[in-house]
Design goal:
Low-confidence stretches of chain A: 214-226
Distance between the termini of chain A: 41 Å
Oligomer: homodimer
Helix content of chain A: 25-40%
Structural class of chain A: alpha/beta
CATH class of the largest domain in chain A: Alpha Beta
Strand order of the largest sheet of chain A: 6-7-10-8-9
Order of helices and strands of chain A: EHEEEHEHEEHEEHEH
Number of helices of chain A: 6
Radius of gyration of chain A: 20 Å
Shape of chain A: elongated
Number of strands of chain A: 10
């Protein structure tokens, strides 16, 4: 089922969003067989129990192998892959659960919804030069690491065309035992600043921020979908 | 670390994209303690070894609990959550690795890139009434369930403003041992139809479809980023 972990090779492993048990079985197996684990500040100390025989080296922000979340989403993976390719060192990438998915799971708010939730965009709100940018790209938009600038994010969202009453969900430390989640609208997003201060945060805007079975509108949409499908399936 | 799995409750578990070892440790633990597992056609038979004591019930497409990928992304989770809430049955959602992340990992093409890859959108190309829709929502766009309509998707992408030369990556059965991946441009996307025929397929368009270290442009961008960061970090 699993490709062997070749000696002399490097595995990039997504540790998942936080709690050590949200790593995949494949990721855990790679840790078990590792001689050296390079990790960053995001990794749960409980992960160490999965690689008891390895040397664990904290490499800080600049070079990491065991990455929080998923290596392919806001993990700056491309720079490390390029360096390994240049050095002729073999590698693989083991995917993980990214924070947007963990926040959706723990708050029971699916990112996609039938009918009016056909797309979800994952975006970093802060550009390379430190500026804040926010658009309206999809039915549901999840902003990573936006915790410090919620008031500015709210302004940018309104400028980008999101109605001020659009549902907004703020989740910090998604997937950890001390996760916090709070509900707002785009207009009142700044209220969340104090609660989530100093914690890694994802902000979900749009359809995917709505609670399930909240009102007649969604129930009607679901009923219509089911009826349409039954009509199509009928002989 | 893990909340207890209460008797009489339901856990929605994301099985990950395919291979059984891409489920999370938490998902595997829930299977180990389950009395009944409801699953759909997407689940890897090898997962059964993780729940040897449970009754496994194939519930087809309409009601599922063990879901392929991540339950919150194109999993139609909202309908099942609403039904359980109406019936007063407790539940939890365990996230998983969604196909877009698995495809990025196995092809070593990160979905986000510093500088020009700030956002990634996950979209279903087919609407509720069976029509094909495609826009230009983010720097990288991943289309789910587009395998049968690649020629039409290419036309819609050009209409939406994607240059015909934009890189396109097609991956079918992402995360499985028999995964197939092929490289195209938006203009030549239809070429992929035969190779991936009859297989669950994701199509990645834009920056995230580019190979790493492909050309001078990306190397220059990365070098600029590093120089800018070092300049900022200097005392």
């Amino acid at each position: 089922m699993t490709r062997a972990f070749a000696p002399g090779s490097v595995a990039f492993v997504g540790a998942g969003p936080g709690a050590a048990d949200l790593i995949t079985l494949r990721g855990a197996e790679r840790l078990r067989n590792a001689d050296v684990v390079l990790f960053d500040a995001l990794a749960d100390p409980a992960l160490r129990a999965l690689a008891p025989n390895a040397r664990w080296i904290d490499v800080g922000k600049r070079v990491v192998r065991l990455k929080g979340g998923d290596p392919s989403v806001f993990g700056r993976l491309e720079e490390e892959l390029a360096a390994l390719a240049a050095a002729g060192i073999e590698c693989e990438v083991v995917p993980g659960v990214t924070a947007a998915l963990a926040a959706a799971a723990s708050t029971r708010r699916p990112l996609t919804r039938r009918g009016d939730g056909r797309s979800v965009a994952l975006t970093t709100a802060v550009t390379r030069d430190g500026k804040l940018g926010a658009g309206r790209h999809a039915d549901t938009e999840v902003f990573y690491m936006a915790g410090k600038q919620l008031a500015a994010l709210a302004r940018k969202l309104v400028e980008a065309g999101w109605p001020a009453t659009t549902p907004a969900l703020v989740v910090s430390r998604a997937g950890w035992p001390d996760e916090l989640a709070s509900e707002h609208s785009v207009a009142s997003l700044a209220e969340a600043t104090l609660l989530h201060s100093g914690r890694p945060t994802v902000v979900t805007i749009g359809v995917g921020a709505e609670p399930i079975a909240a009102g007649a509108r969604r129930a009607r949409l679901v009923a219509e979908s089911v009826a349409a499908e039954e009509a199509r399936a009928a002989p």
